[in-house]
Amino acid sequence: MEVDQMVPLPRLPRVAVCGGTHGNELSGVYLVRELLKLQREVMKKEQEEDSKPALVLLVLSNPRAMQHCRRYVDTDLNRCFTHATLNGPFSDMAPYEIIRSRELNALLGPKGSPEAVDLVCDLHNTTANMGLCFIGYSDCDWICLHIFRHLQMPDTPMRFLHFDVSNKESYSLDSLGKHGFAMEIGPQPHGVVRSNIYTAMKVGVQHMLDWVRLFNSGNVFEGGFVDVFTMVKHIDYPRDSETRNITAAIHPCLQDRDFCLLHPEDPLFQTFSGETVRYKGTEPLYPFFINECAYYEKGIALSLARKRRITIPAIRVQTEQEQQANEQGFASEEEE
């Protein structure tokens, strides 16, 4: 893909901003509540300016978990959106989050269908020192990559994380849309809202919605380059072979150093008896989600990624003729 190549893409008439997928990640909870209050005024202003507003769906994803300020009630909602989970056997006795995932799929999807919303932005907090991250399943979704490039904020470190997972196996809420990403911001303790983290998220969402309006209005976005961190593997804590209790914590030299290159033999853990456990990998990689509170139960002390530079093309919204041709092509594929 060349930087100067122009790629016409369909309009984004329906955008969803979701908060509270994890009920104790409070920046998204409070931001979506605030946006719900302001939505009527914003829509009225856009109509007065005779613009082509996107329909913004504001969703509080996991109300029961939010009520109890817990990550989830029965099971992690943000792991319930695989094709198998959404389309498998179902009963009224299913865990709450399984039921809720199907409700959200009906509202925002169906996943993988022409009826799905055009863009999903799901808001999350992390206890790790990760700044503002976009997390997506594709390194060639030009919409998400251009939004990320547009969002660059001088006072907030930003990275694009790529989880190389197929559409059927993609498991998070943002995978319900034609395009989607999680906006992950930290550090912030769970069950707490910090004004600086909330403000960074608010600015990020505002810039994202501004970009969608510009794109839908016909603006051309020049091509360029984006650094992408592709997840390679997870590393668990050292554990007792019998009890499976952890026997070490993240080493002080690594704590809070998300996205700082980790070299072989660098300190990784410090055991509770005071010994240093070193990184035994064969190549330098970038650590992230270091000591994330919610991942203790998942057996993840940190994750590691490779960094590479992606070339993204120039993009613009499709003309009506291009859109009609695209829809006819999709219909032909459906008939086959």
TrEMBL record:
Compartment(s): Apical cell membrane; Cytoplasm
Matching Gene3D superfamilies: 2.20.25.160, Zn peptidases
Classification via Pfam families: AstE_AspA_cat, AstE_AspA_hybrid
InterPro entries: AspA/AstE_fam, Aspartoacylase, AstE_AspA_cat, Aste_AspA_hybrid_dom
Positions with a binding annotation for Zn(2+): 22, 25, 124
GO cellular component terms listed in the entry, alphabetical order: apical plasma membrane; cytosol
Cofactor binding remark: Binds 1 zinc ion per subunit.
Database matches in SUPFAM superfamilies: Zn-dependent exopeptidases (SSF53187)
UniProt entry keywords in alphabetical sequence: Cell membrane, Cytoplasm, Hydrolase, Membrane, Metal-binding, Zinc
EC code: 3.5.1.114
Domain Succinylglutamate desuccinylase/Aspartoacylase catalytic stretches: 12-210
Catalysed transformations (reactions): an N-acyl-aromatic L-alpha-amino acid + H2O = an aromatic L-alpha-amino acid + a carboxylate; an N-acetyl-L-cysteine-S-conjugate + H2O = an S-substituted L-cysteine + acetate
Active site: 184 (proton donor/acceptor)
Keyword Ribosomal protein: no
Record flagged with keyword Zinc: yes
HAMAP family attached to this UniProt entry: Aspartoacylase (MF_00704)
Similarity field: Belongs to the AspA/AstE family. Aspartoacylase subfamily.
Protein name (record): N-acyl-aromatic-L-amino acid amidohydrolase
Taxonomic lineage: Eukaryota, Metazoa, Chordata, Craniata, Vertebrata
